[in-house]
Amino acid sequence: MASLRASGLLFSSSSCSCSKGINAAISVPKLPRIRFPATKTPLKLVEELNLRNGFTTSAKLYAILEAVADRVEMHKNIGEQRDNWNKLLLNSINMITLTAATMVGVAAGGAAGAPLLALKLSSTLLFSAATGMLIIMNKIQPSQLAEEQRNATRLFKQLYCQIQTTLALRDPTELDVKDAMEKTLALDKAYPLPLLGKMIEKFPENFEPAVWWPKPHESPRKQHKTQAKNGWSEDLEKEMGEVIEVIKRKDSEDYMRLGNLALKVNKIMAISGPLLTGIAAAGSAFVGHGSWAAIVAVTAGALASTVNTFEHGGQVGMVVEMYRNSAGFFKLLEESIDSTIPGKDLEKREDGEMFEMNVALKLGRSLSQLRDLARKSSTSHVHGSTIDEFASKLF
């Protein structure tokens, strides 16, 4: 029995060791668990699509932002170039004109024969060259071109900041992208870069304000009960209405009057300069056939230099563009107030307090000064008098 037990123990121990060896030899590695994704609910799918759409609109708006930044740099560089044109052409034409006038004086002082012919020919050629250069310069008005590019640079920078603010405050929508695109193209149209074919008319028949914003989209006017909501109230609407009246009767009217006056002065000088150099060229050709020819040539040349210096040195074209831009600013302010007050219901309007603050800042006033202006305008209607104050304190 002892031997059987011993053999049994031996067998059991050997069988255990064998079984362990077999198990170790044939052990199969564990397969990784495969987790099947749960089916997305319709809500999660919609959220993912919205996220993708938000990413797309942000990418579009960033693309417009890059284009606007590029335009800022282009208009800045071209503005500096055209300002240099004005200085260089002004100095060159004046030097040519005065040199030609000096030659006429020397020729009339007693020169004869070949020297007289050389002086006459040289002065006539110089006066003719000055006439041609003046015609081109007066046509393109470099000082006005430079002011256009300065205004375009400022407005594109303003648009750049608006797009940055939109991206910083919230996720942009397709409407934001469309609005930014329309504003960019409107600025491109208002301030073209090329000279040939697309240059703004420098001598229009009537003075018109600059327009650099897209046409507002018409929206059906909705009736609503005026109440304190979204920062708006009946008093605020009346205040904005009075501000518009002051802008129309005082600021816009004054800048249109000054713009028309500057345009007329510029037209007269643009014609007078080449006309005087042309007369001087004709007079220089007859030097030696009487004292009157030299007198006409020298006098016309001196007057031409004076007119040219006053027109381009005084940058009358730039003044015209400044008035045109200022009149456009007031027109834009009028349209923004007109379209905000009656055109939208209270819930869709810009916040009333924010809108009032923006109008006050654009006019260079504090909120209390803006309200005092509206109060004065309302009082003038009652008494039948005219308000003696402009809406803007900036310019």
UniProtKB/TrEMBL annotation:
InterPro entries: Chloroplast_duf. This is F-box family protein. Pfam families: Chloroplast_duf (PF14476).
